[in-house]
Each structure stands twice: as structure tokens, then as C-alpha cells.
Fold:
Amino acid sequence: MLPEKLNAAIASMLAQKNKKETSIISARPLSGGSINYAYLLETSSGKYFVKYNKASAYPGMFAQEARGLEILFTANALRVPEVIGSGESGNNSFLLLEYIESASQNNDFWEVFGQKLAKLHSHTAGNFGLDHDNYIGSLPQYNNTHGRWTDFFREERLQVQIDMAGRSGLLSKEMLSSFERLFKKLDEIFPDVSPSLIHGDLWSGNYMVDEKGEACIIDPAVYYGSREMDIGMSRLFGGFSGRFYEAYNAACPMAPGWQQRLDICNLYPLMVHVNLFGGGYVGSVEAILRRFK
Structure:
């Protein structure tokens, strides 16, 4: 079962939502990634999903994730789990969500997924960034706003990760010089684009198939950015069908040269992995930088 104080806090939150006393009948552990404990809750008011961690380890993580899910929900494009609430109890912070039953993919799963992602990306803003910071994995993600994509990408995405890796001694002087050369070319590499609402961490582990056989996206790192960031991330570790990209491009055509730019986009998640998991990803970063000397 859950820690006693956490159990009581969740029961109270569910009672407030359902306007009746709610008891937790059982809590079954689920795979929750490397930093969270995750459980399927059977309650007197139905099934729910909860994840929790030490509040002091990742301040504000679940409150920010809840805000991200609510932003995606408001976009009315792709399904996301309903947020029941987030909070702290004792030493733990938690996020309580709708529990989504999993099923097999529909025959047109990838086409519909691509079309709906294009619909999500059609939501735009005046600047790149967001009105609050959040997390990517267990690392803080800074969303200070910029008027140009290349400025935002350089300052809020790559430079933050470069500085972190540099402090840990993970980057050679040659790599730092390569990044400096790349920064001078970013305006040539990227076309002018409008800020699109993006998931921000769209790899195969962050979508699931819901009970209707359609895509449901989870664990976002939301901001307004280049939509190529989501497309690049989806290709970084594989798991997405070619039909997904065809449907996406038919609904919202990408600017010429997008295939070549995806490697540059993926420098951000790769540098995140360098900082989370050590030097094993440095080679992938080096290989991309060499192609853009």
C-alpha cells in the first residue's frame, strides 16, 4: 500500500472530487520510470493512477506536470489523462490522474495520431517558451520567452545543457568549440517559424493506446517551440510508424529540409541524456556536431 499519510491525502482529494467519501481498496505497483513510484488505485469510486516521489528531490515537478497536461487538454487535439489533482503529503509529492485502460491499436492508429499531433501543433503563441518552467525527465526545463526560435533553442535548450555537462566534465574543449560554431549557423539552418504548442518529450514511452485503440499522450514537457522538436524526438529512439509521419505531413506540411534539421533538434534530448546518464550519449552528440561543421 501507499504511505499512510499519502493514502489519506489521496482519499480526501477523491472525496472532494466525487462529493462522497472514497476509500482506497488496493494499490498495485506499476512501472513508473526511474524517478517515481507509480500505482493503480482501486477505490470505492473507481480506478485512478497515482505517482509520487520525494518532495524535496524535485520541487514542483508534479504541479508543473499537471499544468502541462491541462494545457494539452485545453488544446482538444490529443487525449491526455484527466488531472484529478496534485499535492504534498508528509515528505512526498504526488500527482493523481484518471486511469486509462490500455487496448490494441486501431487499424488507422498511426494516421489518426499524426493528424491529431498536427492539430496540437496548430495552437500557437506570440513567443517561444512558456509562462512557467517545468521539467524534462528529472532535469529542470527553463522556458524564458524569446521572439525567435533560434534564440530560444540556443539559450533555453542547448546552452543550459552544455553548461551542466561542462560543470561535470562531460564535454571536451573540441565539443564546446563545435557547439559555438553550430550556434553561429542556427539562423541558416532553421527557417522562421511560429511558436507551436508541443508535447516536448514525445518518445515512444510517452504515449499509450487507450481503451478506444487511439493514442493518449503522457508525461509532457510542454512549451511553445518549433514543432520539429516533437517530430525529431519521436524518431530519436524509434517506435513510430512511417504512416504517422505521412499523415502528419499531409495535415501540416513541414518546411523543406526538415529531415536534415531533426538531428539538430535532437541535440537537446541527447544532451539531456548526457546529463542524466553520463557520457554514454556523448558520442551521439559528437557525431551530429561533426556533420554540421
Q: What stands out?
A: The chain has a mean pLDDT of 96. The first helix runs from residue 4 to 18. The radius of gyration is 20 Å. Residues 168 and 183 are 22 Å apart (CA to CA).
